[in-house]
Each structure stands twice: as C-alpha cells, then as structure tokens.
Amino acid sequence: MVETLSPLLLPDWPASVVPSPPRIAVVVSGPAASMPLCLLALQRQRTAAGLRPSAGGIAVVLAPEEGPARLRPLLAGIEPHLPFPLRIEATPGAEPGWRAALRQAADWVGPEGMVLSTRADAAPEPGWIAAHAAAIAAGAEAGAGIIRPPSLPCPARRYALLLEAIAARLDPLAEHLPPPAEAAHNLAFRAGILPDALPPGGAPALLALLRARDATIRLVAGAVVGAALPPPPVEGLRAACRRVTARAMLRRLWEDGIGIVLPENEALRHLARRLGLPAGALAALLGTRHFGAAWAAVEAASSMLALQPLPATALAGETRRARLLLAWLRLAGQRAGGRPAGAAMPGGSCIGW
User: Fold this and answer.
1) Which domain of life is it from (predicted)?
2) With DSSP H G I counted as helix, E B as strand and the rest as coil, what are the percentages for the chain, rounded to 5?
3) How many CB atoms lie within 10 A of CB 151?
C-alpha cells in the first residue's frame, strides 16, 4: 500500500498532461527522522557533466520503518521544494517496508528503468546517481557503491580494506563487492532483474540471490555515500585467503565442466580434500547452471569456509601480516609484467591452505 505525495509538474505543462514515468527511482529506508537530510542530499545530485538531472527523470520512494504517520510532519516544509516526486510506502517495519518500496519503485520505472536503494542515515554524494546510472548503461545488471565513513576508518575497517585488496590480487576475475551488510546503503539495479518474490533478509539477501544467479554486478567506485557504520566482522588472514583461493579454484573447475561433463580429476580431488568434502559430493555441487549457486552451496557444505571471527586482540598482528602479504603480491605482479600474481607464496605453498 502506497501513499502518493503530489508530484511536481513542469511549470509550462498543461494540467491535463500526465508526466511520463521516471527512468530512475530511489528507495530510501530507515528511521523517519533521518529522511529529510537524505532528501536534501538527493536534491544536490548532478549528472556526469555537473548539471541538474532533467525534470521528471528521478523519483523517490520513502520507506520509514515506523510507518508514514511519523514522516508526514517532517516533510511538510521541504516536500513542495523538492525537484522530484515522492511516494511514501505505508507498510510498517524495516524489512517489509523496504521490500514493498522496492517493488513499488520497480513498477514505477518499468523493467528497463533503474532502482537505487540507500538508507536514510546515509548521505549520497552529488555524483551518486550518475555513477550508478553509468554502470547500468554500460551493461551491469546491478551495482554496489562505496561507503565513506564520516571520520577515519576504524582499525577493523582498515583491515577489511586490506583483505579486499588482497582478494582482488588473488582472484582478479571475481567482482569484489563491499560487505553484504553495507548493501542497503548503496545498491542499484535494473528493475527488470528483480525476482517476483523478494527474499527475506533485506538488501544483503537480495544481493546474494543476484550473485547466485550470476547477475552482472559491478563495484561502482564513483557511487559514494557517507554513513556511520559499525565495525565490520572480520576474520584471520589465512581463513580469508582460503575462501578467496577456494572460490578461484572452484570457478576453474566449474568452467571446465569437471565432475559434470568431464570426469573428476586431481584438481577436483585436491580441492575436495582441502574443503573436507568427498570428491563426489563436491562434483555434485558443481552441477548447477550458475557458478554463484555452486559457490553458495559449497560455502554452506564446507566447515573450512565458515566465517571465523577474529578476536580484537589479534587485529593488530593480522593487519601487519596483511600489509606484508599485499606488498608481496604487488611486487610479484610487477615482476610478472602486470599479470595477476596468482595464489602461491614463495616456495610454492598456496595462500590460505
């Protein structure tokens, strides 16, 4: 159920002219008290050329977790001055309201339109919409942007950034996205890829579903929002590298059809031993249409890939080791003439294993 606030019409439009649907809809979820400031940030959006977006091209759906009654008084002074139409989703509750608002936004723009999702406590920077739109126009089905904390990153976040940089070196073919917990703050997608039934679990679950279907998801570095985030859950360097290396090895097996159209080979048996799985069971998990689904199944089946939270007392030491490993990987890449450094340490031992 959606309450519609009267959209703004161009001044020279006759009253009988109905504006065409917007091409872009932004879903803003979260506490009602934070929504006015987020709307002002959306008002400052600019195109790649630094111009204001064309009138009628952008719309906003608000999903206050308390329901619309709390939000209406807060919008009274600013809504008439906003350059985009607003709709308020009347479904209460953080996740149900977000899902309903997402569906409403997708229906509003049509299958070829674009839907963006952010949190009310996030402030999109002026080029946020333009960066996501460029990624979708270039062929991405979905994009995940960057979170810029309002102050210097905490030690856990700095360590998490090191792990992301290491992962990009170990498995350059993978799309290395921000942590799923940050997806609600900065996600965009072509409306046509939305599933008929949105999964429970919010934006992280939607992103996981799209990855399981091998949707083309891009990291959009130019799409930035500022938000205060809690420290991300991190794990030890060895466990993190094990996951990245296993994913790269599994992708090669899946692409080659090993265990499905081709017989099991030593590479599959080696990976199965490392993951603590029978080779036949690993081969069976590879028999899916989408690699993302195969990887999700292997992650769930292997205890070796379970998240192992890092104790706070070990963070400083793991950060030093991560810096050393990243420096070595960069040096190895330079010596290889810019080619990926791979996943082997000096002496031939495999990182993470």
Assistant:
1) Bacteria
2) 45, 15, 40
3) 6
